[in-house]
Design brief:
heterodimer; A: about 450 residues; alpha/beta; five-stranded parallel β-sheet; 17 helices; about 40% helix; B: about 500 residues; 3 domains; nine-stranded mixed β-sheet; nine-stranded parallel β-sheet; Ala_racemase/Decarboxylase_C (chain B)
Chain lengths: ~450, ~500
């Protein structure tokens, strides 16, 4: 397939049937609309392109900047589109909680402005919230901003009304599905698709999914937050249910591991919510029905999000010579030496002094003649074996003598005959009035 | 009333729970000393200090916890704290005098905030540490120390305007502190006045609940401290201010149901939950919710010492990703903190007497008038929404009945609007429709828990010749509560105290 511009590759995504052995529904065919296969990686490519397209040429001529309140996929798509048209993009957000997405946006040349956290000493009379101020700067005379306004722009919904929705009907041989399940973020995709499907068949039932209130799932709003969205109309949905972050990740893992669909947590939430919704219906059915959910984006950007909530998924094999293997007794009895004795020992010139603190801290102040090997690096070295000759005595120093004790215990276990930890660390050294130098 | 009552039950730890379970004491106190009445619990403050100390211990950090005196004028609390090893942060001449008089030695006092010449003089004269906001203030202090031949004064430099690399954080501007980009001329002044000023470190205080913003500021401080060292100065500490927060509510579910209910009320899909349909900053524009909820996040699972713990464990993005505590340790810096509200968590309550309970006729919320002004119970001024606890005049608080009709209606939950005693339309204790488990009667007490941090005397006035609340200190001896007037309390007062 040949294109003149990457933007032509937006849309026409596959509709893939989920294996019934995975979801366990007997009477319902469940399909995933793979929006993750859009060129910039998400369902938002459609809305971003549809919102920006009519204004890009004019804005580029004025030397304008594309601006959006987005913490993720819309920002990503707009950053690319702006760059393709010789413009810059700025995202203003208080929801940027995924470090990989933030880094990717910076890599794409986006500027990111983060709104401040809530005031601790609250002034209830202060009515100028940061968003109001943001809108004020947008409408200042002479400003050349192209604000796509995804939460209020009808062209967001339209992209799905004319694109995503009809594609689903076409791929189901001209029939609308009986069920449509979607997560509510800007409400653009759920509203647009629902409208298109209902135009085809008013009996389509639409389930909206929101994040549980105390939870955070990227790309999904809580029910209260959904009310802040101009495109959100509760009447669109036959039901609105909440999904938790753990459930979203569970759903995501099923899609990733069993279906070969590398969906992110938003798609996982949609899958989980869909199966939960349909399971009750399925038992009562006598004829076959179909259901569609949207897989919004890909898993790769959410590794830190998943790691934080499910560290068990990232279990690594144990490595030899690891301080984690030490028993408390070994650490307690690790060879150690107090500041006064250490000074005398160093004066003999015998020990190699290893400072385990960070290079910044070492550069600021350290024991004269010491070597800096930061503790993570030291730990890494030990996995490979003893990094010192057994004939060379070693004094290990860290801030308070805790890490140095662990490493001294480990080196002893590895067979070093004369390694000691500086008791109380560099802080005790300083407090004893012993000299620290800068080089 | 529109469905189930939306309670916001206060979080009560053992001391406040026990006090509220002593209705006879609370009625005796208000009968004798009037309503409103503040009760402070000094021993709780010492316990809270221990929680902060243990977080220091977990991270192997040394340094001082400075109680932000401005959060409460109480002498009892201050004197109880003087009996521990904590410090105090004073923000006025009067607070400095109070702290010195309560027994704090100058090495345990830091002077912060806007300062007049008298405040600066007394601070320098007594050798307390002075946190300086600007270069002008630094020069003013240095000149004063030279002119009056005062001892060399320990100073902290308060900084602001920190920026993270890559992302611009639109932090609220602070009127305090020197912009970190102007730290060079500030350090030059420190060097120039080296004979009279001794730089002990740098400070910041950000008015935000965001961990990331505070982490950015701490990283910025470390960079300035490094600059200090390269100039040959010997700074020893970073003061990260306060703002650790308090968890006011017992039940996160109640908070979530209430805020969702408020959203619906503002959108008009349920009856109002406030007096006059007030939206606490939210408004309805053509069916879409606009504005920002101007409320304190009253249910905050991570608050106080736990918040400090999370902050210290937060990775420093631009300095290799180590936790901030490890960075402080590595660089051998002491950590100073200035908790106010968080240190006063569960340290007191405010008792008010019900004067009048009036039916509105239309079946709406009852009008309940209290013998207190809104500024005596300043929770609303801080955006804190929390239910008062009803302490009945007769009975033991279990709701055990009175006679006849009153008993039957009294057992039902009611919605009420709480009015103060000023002759002023807006004197509402809270604009929220408060749900109480039973109808209160004149003579009952409504007790507002956890008011010690900023909500007792910070805003109180004597408008209309109405009294400001009196304050008593209470402590437990065995199973019995003892009390004295706040000003009569010294660490020797309770039996078993230092004698």
């Amino acid at each position: 397939m040949r294109y003149d511009s990457i933007t032509e590759a937006i849309g026409n995504t596959p509709l893939v049937r989920i294996d019934p052995a995975v979801h366990g529904l007997r009477n319902i065919d469940l399909y995933a609309k793979l929006e993750l296969l859009n060129p910039f990686g998400s369902v938002k490519d459609r809305a971003a392109w549809n919102m920006a397209r009519p204004h890009l040429a004019a804005a580029a001529e004025e030397g304008g900047q594309v601006v959006e309140l987005s913490s993720g996929n819309t920002a990503k798509a707009l950053a690319v589109l702006a760059g393709m048209h010789g413009m810059t993009f700025k995202s203003v957000t208080n929801r940027m909680r995924i470090p990989e997405i933030k880094d990717l946006l910076l890599l794409l040349g986006a500027q990111i402005e983060e709104l401040p956290g809530q005031s601790e000493c609250l002034d209830p009379t202060a009515t100028d919230d940061p968003l109001t101020l943001f809108h004020r700067t947008l409408s200042e005379p002479g400003s050349a901003y192209l604000h796509t306004d995804q939460y209020f722009n009808p062209r967001n919904t339209e992209a799905h009304f004319t694109g995503t929705g009809p594609e689903i009907v076409k791929d189901l041989d001209g029939r609308a599905p009986d069920w449509f399940i979607a997560c509510v973020g800007t409400a653009g995709s759920s509203t647009g698709v629902a409208r298109a499907l209902r135009e085809h068949d008013p009996a389509v039932r639409v389930a909206g999914l929101v994040a549980a209130k105390s939870d955070f799932i990227p790309g999904i709003r809580t029910i209260d937050e959904a009310h802040e969205v101009g495109l959100f109309d509760p009447g669109t949905y036959d039901t609105i249910e909440a999904v938790g972050a753990d459930e979203a990740i569970e759903g995501m893992l099923t899609l990733n591991r069993r279906c070969g669909i590398l969906a992110g947590p938003t798609g996982g939430a949609a899958y989980f919510g869909a199966v939960r919704q349909l399971r009750a219906v399925d038992a009562e059915l006598t004829e076959r029905q179909s259901a569609v959910f949207i897989v919004c984006d890909r898993v790769e950007s959410y590794l830190s999000y998943v790691r934080q909530r499910r560290p068990d998924l990232f279990g690594r094999p144990r490595r030899r010579n690891s301080p984690a293997d030490l028993s408390p007794a070994e650490i307690r009895t690790a060879p150690a030496i107090g500041v006064a004795d250490a000074r005398a020992w160093i004066a003999t010139g015998a020990p190699l002094v290893v400072d385990l603190r960070s290079p910044h801290a070492y550069a600021a102040l350290h024991i004269d003649g010491s070597v800096n090997i930061v503790d993570e690096l030291f730990e890494e070295l030990l996995h490979g074996g003893l990094p010192f000759s057994r004939s060379r005595p070693v004094l290990l120093a860290c801030p308070v003598g805790e890490k140095s004790a662990r490493h001294a215990a480990l080196l002893t276990r590895m067979g070093h005959p004369d390694v000691r930890s500086l008791t109380g660390g560099i802080i005790a050294w300083r407090d004893a009035g012993a000299p620290l130098v800068r080089d | 009333m529109g469905g189930q009552p939306l309670y916001l039950a206060p979080r009560l730890e053992s001391r406040l729970r026990s006090l509220l379970g002593s209705p006879d004491l609370l009625h005796t106190l208000t009968d004798a000393l009037g309503s409103p009445l503040h009760v402070v619990v000094p021993d709780q403050l010492a316990d809270n200090l221990q929680q902060f100390r243990s977080v220091y211990g977990i991270h192997h950090l040394s340094g001082q916890v400075f109680y932000a005196h401005k959060a409460n004028r109480s002498s009892a609390l201050l004197r109880r704290l003087a009996a521990t090893d904590a410090g105090v942060d004073v923000a006025s001449l009067g607070e400095l005098q109070h702290a010195l008089g309560a027994g704090f030695t100058p090495d345990r006092i830091t002077a912060t905030g806007p300062k007049n010449p008298e405040f600066l003089w007394l601070a320098a004269r007594t050798s307390v540490t002075v946190s300086l906001d600007t270069r002008g203030e630094l020069e003013q202090l240095a000149t004063l120390v030279r002119k009056h031949a005062l001892p060399r004064t320990r100073v902290l430099l308060r900084l602001s305007g920190f920026e993270a690399s890559g992302v611009r954080v639109l932090s609220r501007r602070s009127r305090f502190g020197t912009d970190v980009r102007e730290s060079d001329p500030l350090l030059e002044s420190v060097e120039r006045y080296g004979d009279v000023l001794d730089l002990v470190g740098v400070a910041y205080h950000l008015d935000t609940t965001s961990l990331a913003e505070k982490a950015t500021a701490l990283e910025g401080c470390l960079r300035v401290l490094e600059e200090c060292r390269s100039r040959g100065l010997r700074p020893r500490a970073v003061d990260i201010g306060g703002g650790f927060g308090v968890n006011y509510l017992a039940d996160g579910g109640q908070w979530e149901r209430y805020t969702t209910g408020l959203t619906q009320a503002v959108l008009g899909t349920r009856p109002p939950l406030t007096y006059g349909g007030h939206g606490y900053g939210l408004r309805n524009e053509a069916g879409t919710l606009r504005g920002t909820l101007g409320l304190y996040p009253a249910h905050r699972p991570v608050a106080g010492a736990r918040y400090l713990d999370e902050l210290l464990a937060h990775p420093a993005a631009s300095l290799g990703g180590s936790p901030l505590a490890a960075l402080l340790l590595d660089h051998l810096y002491d950590l100073h903190t200035e908790p106010g509200r968080a240190l006063l968590d569960q340290c007191g309550l405010t008792v008010t007497k019900v004067l009048e309970v009036r039916d509105h006729g239309t079946g709406g919320p009852l009008l309940v008038r209290l013998a207190a002004k809104a500024d005596d119970v300043a929770l609303e001024d801080h955006g804190v929404l929390m239910d008062p606890v009803v302490v009945p005049r007769d009975g033991d608080g279990s709701g055990v009945p009175r006679d006849g009709d009153e008993a039957r209606t009294a057992a039902e939950p009611v919605g009420v609007h709480l009015f103060g005693s000023l002759c002023l339309e807006s004197d509402l204790i809270t604009r929220r429709t408060v749900f109480l488990p039973r109808r209160p009667a004149p003579g009952d007490l409504l007790a507002f828990a956890n008011t010690a941090g900023y909500c007792m005397d910070f805003h109180a006035t004597r408008a209309q010749h109405q009294p400001a609340a009196r304050k008593v200190a209470a402590w437990q001896e065995g199973d019995t509560w003892r009390w004295c007037l706040d000003d009569q309390y010294w660490p020797t007062t309770p039996v078993g105290g230092a004698q």
